[in-house]
Amino acid sequence: MIVIIVMLAAFPKLGVPDAWILYILLFFVYLAMANMWNLLCGYSGLISLCQPAFIGIAGYTLVLLVWVGVPFYVAIIAGGIVAGAFAVLISIPVFRLRGIYFAIGTLVVPEALRILFLLWRPVGGKLHGGGAGYMLRGMSGVSVAHYYWMACIVGIGSFFLMRLILRSKLGLGLAAIRENDRSAASSGLNVFRLKLYSFVISGFVTGIAGAVFYLYQGYIEPGAAFTIQWTMIPILATVIGGISTEEGPIIGTVVVVFLDFLLARYAGISMFIQGAILVGIMLLAPQGIMEIGKQIRTYFSWLR
Amino acid sequence: MNEGAQLSVTSIDVFYGGFQAIHEVSLKVQSGEIVALVGANGAGKSTLLNTISGLIQPAKGRIEFEGESITAMDPSQIVALGISQVPQGRRIFPDMTVRDNLVLGSYNRNARFKKEQNFEMVYNLFPILKERKKQLAKTLSGGEQQMLALGRGLMSSPKLMLLDEMSLGLAPIIIGKVYKALRKIRKRGITILFIEQSVRRSLEEADRAYIIEAGRVVLSGKVADLREEEEIKKAYFGI
Amino acid sequence: MASEVLIDLLNTVVMGILLGGLYALIALGLSLVFGVMKMINVAHGDLILLGTYFAYGMMTHLGVDPILSLIAGIPLLFVIGFGIQKYLMSRAMGRSMEAPLLIAFGISLMLQNLQQILWTPMSKGLTTSYALESFGLGGINLPLAYLFDFIAAVIVMFLLSQFLNRTYLGKAITGAAQDRTAAQLMGINTGRVYAFAFAISMATAAFAGVFLGLTFPFTPQSGTSFLIIAFGVVIVGGLGSMIGTFLGGIVLGVAQTLGGYFLGPTSQMLVVYCLVLLVLALRPQGLFGR
Prior knowledge:
The structure holds three protein chains of three kinds. Chain A contains 14 helices and two strands; from the N terminus they run αααααβααααβααααα. By secondary structure, chain A is an all-alpha fold. Chain A has one domain (about 1-225). A two-stranded antiparallel sheet of chain A has the order 1-2. Chain A is globular. Chain B is of the alpha/beta class. Chain B folds into two domains: about 1-70 and about 160-170 and about 190-240, 3-Layer(aba) Sandwich (Rossmann fold), CATH 3.40.50.300; about 85-160, no CATH class. Chain B has eleven helices and ten strands. A six-stranded mixed sheet of chain B has the order 6-7-8-3-9-10, sandwiched between helices. In chain B, helix 3 packs parallel to helix 7 (about 140-155). Chain B is globular and about 45 Å long. Chain C is mainly α. Chain C has one domain (about 20-220). In chain C, about 80% of the residues lie in helices and about 5% in strands. Chain C is built from eleven helices and two strands; from the N terminus they run H-H-H-H-E-E-H-H-H-H-H-H-H. Chain C is globular. The mean pLDDT of chain C is about 85. At the A-C interface, helix 4, helix 5, helix 11 and helix 13 of A face helix 3, helix 4, helix 9 and helix 11 of C.
């Protein structure tokens, strides 16, 4: 495990082509988001469509702080914190809802934010392309390698974070809630608080991942920041890989990034294909690749 | 052995999730009979009725109605063949009128033609339903709801009626009325298979009975014979 | 001066009420599916938009008036809805709670992308001669389109309630919504009933789509705001009664027009979204719900 990490870290120094580096960066960013979505849906039973809100908010925080001269690594963390705080705020209305109601409630939030950021121009002056976007300023002297390493930290960090959570008291509580939140509540678990922890943690980490992404991309714009695509990617990754498993998001993210690579030429229909794959997987293999893997293994152990 | 039986259940196993609710149960009901299923809570009686109605599929065994295998049929087909269930807890449609509840009882194609006839029959049996026909079902008292549920079951022109715990939550006087109606239903030639908590009541109303325990038939036979059985006297008498 | 402001305000409120009728129509389909199948169709907004784009296609390629195109549009969406429920959703409903939601989500994205390819991301409108006219009512001037919306909404709601209350299938749908098992015991084939309910929901969506297109410009992304409106109406109006849905629609409609009046056209949806979140936070069963 450590070997892999060291290897990955060394890539930029080894002269691995930039394009690859960028894909791996994307992989880690997506992985963090997928893990967080898995935490919410697979482990806490919260079907959240709120990711774009966290990503966008953290992204904007990053851009605005850097604009006023804050060092970027601080700004990233700040982005995460703001996103986390936002999660706390949003939880008030949205946690009143169960299941599917909750999902749509969380859908409203990014939409509202999109319009808000269309209107709000907190720091005057330079607008990207005349729209409501911002360029990332003051990033000269920071190389791709730095972005890359940030992404690695976030992605790998998210994996270990998941491990930690699942083995902790929080994890056990979440497992109970996922099964049946009424009976969990009656056995004394503070359901609300546990869900809140999940939600905030996920907001924080997703925010950081989003901030890193915008660090790399260099500009932010409301339409793209709060788009539903940001929800689609972690969902697709988690579902393909295997929801409610630890390794699922990793496998799924690999597939998603690979798909991104394949479909780069067909950018117009990539969303269509992703949607079709999501529908297909839910119908044919809802437990994802992990489950298929398990079945194959069981099949082979039979043959012995 | 199965000749002449209107309903015959042969050696069925039924699983509820991972749990086996019914083990190798066989029973027979002749046309026109009243047969009781007796047993403690959780013994599997409701599961048995639900399996006959097609809501659950048995993992093993056969169910035949009037010579036709209904084991793999889905509920709508089974209702069309003439088996109607009045479920436990009545399960009337609370926010629909009494009349609409009855109308839905005649949903299946065969019964629709006879809708007006059946309405008359049901209103004759239960005049209170005619009185309250425009009221929302949830505003009815417990006893009235039971009558509505029974009436609804009758609207499908059934040949066999499955009744699950009709006396649940009802005062003794009302229970008496309900069973009186049941006898009238029986007079029309409708076969009845019913579940009843009270052993005494079961033996009073039925021709034959099956005693079910933990998903198995432990005793069965004509009511007159069962009354003599030591076990019944010992374990259940007076309940 | 004050009287001018008053007239403007009155104008705005009346427009909001008329719009509210349309919003109630949008929500009807969603609440029908939710009431019967206990599932919120996340693709509802995009399916409405499908209806809109279909009418647009008919208009631009065949010169057919959008309202007339409903003759084709309604059956089309009906069949699509029937298919979606029968072949996709029914398989998913058994598996888990998330499955139908995710499938609807996938469909939603597919539709958005499809719309984008076919019609470009540019904003379009169902511009017909009458849609742009206004009419006078006791001193205030109202866009004709809004009136049409309201009338259409009332007609559809009336038809739907008649269907649900008077026909066998309608009663079966209502019954299945209240107690699925009891409905099965009546010999109601719940699979088919669900498919019909979804199909009817889509038929109302076709209506809603055309009238929305007549009233507002739309882009491939508009589906999301339609969904949020529908959801908002259901939340604010409470689930369970058509009257509640109607009133919920009116509340949202007025909120939007007032928001547009005071804060400008870009912010009007924002006002609606905030209202929805507010109602969620303070009174989740809706203002008129049970």
